[in-house]
DNA sequence: TTGACATGCAGGTATTTACCTGCATATTAT
DNA sequence: ATAATATGCAGGTAAATACCTGCATGTCAA
């Protein structure tokens, strides 16, 4: 998993909207997705390319159409690497903060 | 939670490194964090400002020092909004894909 | 086969980003 | 008080980003 590509892909409202659109109806074509976006088709393509590079979306060509499918694996990897780690320390971090505010270096 | 700020904050290796550094030892000063970064202090400040704007880091001033603490709440929100949703549909998505590959429009 | 349709590809531009240098301010220690 | 220390603030630049327009290619249907 390339955390940089995944986070950067997620760091844009258009691309998050694309993921939501695919979550509502998986396997949509480029044209279908564009109908919901209010930008040129070519711009949407660039966003989808980034989602694909981050492996968040997989595509299949069917005739002259290109179908788009969500791949949830990178999101799960993000969870394992960047959420669980900090969740685990949640209480102890709050404890540290409280201690600092009370003068942690005594 | 501002998903845009959070994902953009996470979409940079320097800022993810800062979070890891704070995970190892919470409550570090700007100077301490800079020692591990290989860039000008002012650049690190800008990264920390973005982490703070995303509410991923909270700060406390103690004398002339500024202490930095991780706030795991936005990460948890990300999980709720962007991971669980897709995790839940994982199997059904794979099912959709398989069906498409076999000729979904029959 | 020919026209309509879905997508691919090649630039071009304005904005944002990630760094930098230089200087100012505030706190601590001698 | 003065010097050292920790951070804040104000630009300045090169690269990345998010759009766009125009044209090319490939597929389907009449």
Automatic annotation (TrEMBL), chains A, B:
Name by which UniProt lists this protein: Putative transcriptional regulator
GO MF annotation: an example: DNA-binding transcription factor activity
PROSITE patterns: HTH_ARSR_2 (PS50987)
Domain HTH arsR-type: start-end pairs: 1-90
Xref: NCBIfam families: HTH_metalloreg
Natural source organism: Mesorhizobium metallidurans STM 2683
InterPro entries: ArsR-like_HTH (IPR011991), HTH_ArsR_DNA-bd_dom (IPR001845), WH-like_DNA-bd_sf (IPR036388), WH_DNA-bd_sf (IPR036390)
CDD domains for this protein: HTH_ARSR
Pfam families: HTH_20 (PF12840)
